[in-house]
């Protein structure tokens, strides 16, 4: 049997390896839920919120049904809606723009930095100008921490304070990361995250959470999560949504949280191996000084991206494109304002990015196979180069 055949199939994210490491932890947690029968807002939800708040170093964690609901809850808590504009990066998953649209506000697309894929603070001013030109009130920013690295919150928080903007840190891909010694969860006015199964900390279904030190904001978001509830379940103080995390998903997350710190360390080691082996073969992801990425994805940049992906596929290696089309080119969002005369970096990255298998249980033999295949794919040509050269 060849090396390639013996390694097939290689999972892009290996949840089964994690499950084996967890042993009986998940089953035991779920069995407790089955025994007490409080399937909605059971004791596991409160325990998880306390432990996540302690992990992030904030006063409040409000769990919710999914990350998109979390973004909506944060926006609604500040009464952001019609005639308001919220600035979002164009190079990201659709959820940020979707949440803005669902509350009746208008997403305004800004550009990102090439080096870290995150929202460019220099694109905020032209985005504000575009919003005002469209007759909208600039009200907020959603900064998405793409691929696991926190955005430049020092700059973004300064801009938000100067312009009176509500800053949401979208940590759907970065929970567990840190910036200058502070963990994700402490940035912006509120941080939202997702526990989709493929995330660094994921449940076995949909789930999400919000983090803040603002007592009033936390109280409103808790109310919004449960149909705008006031003093009891039949007292409705505001229009809310059914955004609760169920007890079984909380139980899964509690079990996984026991291993999370170790998995973050493992992700650093795996990313370091990729860095060392691929430095001369592709444009590699960069982590800014003072930042710790949780490596939700390991995303390189190559020219002739599709050919490289096909070569890896032929060797049994899955890849993914995060993301093949920027949001301002999506049919549902094509008519919304954009910063300046165009979003060139978002468009360029969409044509070059390629995500390699990345998870805390990626063993050295498998990673060596991935590296060797990628090297072969780019050998003897310029496909590893981008307009900005190698890393």
TrEMBL record:
The active site is at residue 199. GO terms for molecular function: pyridoxal phosphate binding; transaminase activity. SUPFAM superfamilies: PLP-dependent transferases (SSF53383). This is Aminotransferase DegT. Belongs to the DegT/DnrJ/EryC1 family. It holds the Pfam family DegT_DnrJ_EryC1. One of its GO terms (biological process) is polysaccharide biosynthetic process. It comes from the Bacteria. Keywords: Aminotransferase, Pyridoxal phosphate, Transferase. It comes from Hypericibacter terrae. The modification N6-(pyridoxal phosphate)lysine is found at residue 199. Coiled coil: none annotated.
